[in-house]
């Protein structure tokens, strides 16, 4: 059973999400928070598998709450809710430790699937939102600027030298927002083979999920904005 906490300052939104998610046989809503501080308190007390976190909330916003949960060292993962009018927060939330994003206009089935994906340990970052991260780097919003020159994997970060040529190739494709299936088709590999490579990449680099892989690749210059 996947245990969830829903954090949103709008009561009707929380109730709607709770009703939808609680109706699933494998999901259980164990807490609801009206602000970021309460979300952190519930996460520490209940240690849910996933916190569904709104970005804009009173007392403490969703980004600061996400950072606090990540800093606590608990296994709880955060799925952020975002809308197109707050796209600038996407990169900040990734850096804070969010494992994925869901647009607020998503269909109910997409919400359920997103929660399951994040709970299973995968990062959820659609190509559309990946492009937002790229644009942030293009505007210089990233904390580490992408290199203007062709990236040298061994110079970018010591751990990257441990990757094989194939793993480096797959990491770049992950950073571009491709799914395992799309990478498999692009490289003419079996999808399970790609999944194995991705798992090894995350282990070697100490990454939690695909969201962190996107951040690392752009910060270290493995992929350049506009490339």
Structure in words:
- Keywords: DNA-binding, Phosphoprotein, Transcription, Transcription regulation.
- The modification 4-aspartylphosphate is found at residue 54.
- 50% of the residues lie in helices and 12% in strands.
- It has two domains: 2-124, Response regulator (Rossmann fold); 145-219, Arc Repressor Mutant, subunit A (Orthogonal Bundle), CATH 1.10.10.10.
- Helix 2 (36-46) runs parallel beside helix 3 (62-71) and helix 8 (165-175) crosses helix 10 (191-205).
- The protein has eleven helices and five strands, in the order E-H-E-H-E-H-E-H-E-H-H-H-H-H-H-H.
- Mean pLDDT is 81; it is low at 141-156.
- Strands 2-1-3-4-5 form a five-stranded parallel β-sheet, with helices on both faces.
- By secondary structure, it is α/β, with parallel strands linked by helices.
Number of domain units: 2
The order of strands across the largest sheet is: 2-1-3-4-5
Query: What is the 3D form?
Result: globular
What is the CATH topology descriptor of the largest domain?
Answer: Rossmann fold
What is the helical fraction, as a range of percent? 40-55%
Computed Rg: 18 Å
Q: Please report the total strand number as a whole number.
A: 5
Portion in beta strands: 5-15%
Major sheet: 5 strands, parallel
> Could you state the order of secondary-structure elements as H and E?
EHEHEHEHEHHHHHHH
Oligomer: single chain
Which spans have pLDDT < 50 for at least 5 consecutive residues?
141-156
> What's the CATH C level of the largest domain?
Alpha Beta
Provide the CATH architecture of the largest domain.
3-Layer(aba) Sandwich
How many distinct helices? Answer: 11
CATH superfamily of the largest domain: Response regulator
Q: How far do the termini sit from each other?
A: 42 Å
- Secondary-structure-based class equals alpha/beta
Q: Return the average pLDDT rounded to an integer.
A: 81
GO molecular function: DNA binding
Keywords: DNA-binding, Phosphoprotein, Transcription, Transcription regulation
Pfam family, one: Response_reg
Domain Response regulatory: 3-119
